Amino acid sequence: MLTVLIDYDSGNLHSAEKAFQRMARETGAGEVIVSSRAEDVARADRIVLPGDGAFPACRAALLQDHAALFEALMEAVEEKARPFLGICVGMQLMARMGHEYAATPGLNWIAGEVRPIRPGDSHLKVPHMGWNDLVIDAPHPVLDGIVTGDHAYFVHSYQMEMDDPAQRLAHVDYGGAVTAVVGIGTRIGTQFHPEKSQKAGLRLIANFLAWAP
Prior knowledge:
There is one protein chain. This protein is α/β, with parallel strands linked by helices. It has one domain (2-210): Rossmann fold, CATH 3.40.50.880. 29% of the residues lie in helices and 34% in strands. An 8-stranded mixed beta sheet has the order 2-1-3-4-14-13-12-9, sandwiched between helices. A 4-stranded mixed beta sheet has the order 6-5-7-11, with helices on one face. It starts with a strand and ends with a helix. The model has no long low-confidence stretch (mean pLDDT 96).
């Protein structure tokens, strides 16, 4: 089995690569590689889309600067139903639209839009950065063994506001509910960084590597 972490110049993938490779070794889940090659994405059994930075920049890097890679991703996820995990901005790109700097279309996989975090408590700072307690909203195989109160590590100034509550699998409280995990069909996304979230994050990675939707 091959898991591909897509490299589209969206940030440093070193820690994510190491975390996924570690859990693949521990669970016997096959090979994990980081690649910017369309042919690797086309043959992947599982696909991970990380993302750091601004929504429009990540979208342009994927859709314009790496067009062949993007086409391979869409075919693998939409036509072949390969399991997909979006991380941070990679999750945000799953939305219908992002509103960072300018209205920017997303992949339209999740019924929601990405907008600035506006905590109800004026003492809470933006970006939302550091550890927060997950609240599990709905069961999912990738969340097996992860429970309300488990900690995850966040770094973001924008959040996905959901149109369909059934597609929100978990949230955190940060002056109001902030979406933490989304999912539909063979696609799931985490606003937090599982590779930096210690026990809960490594459990999520292991679950994703074992997921057979």
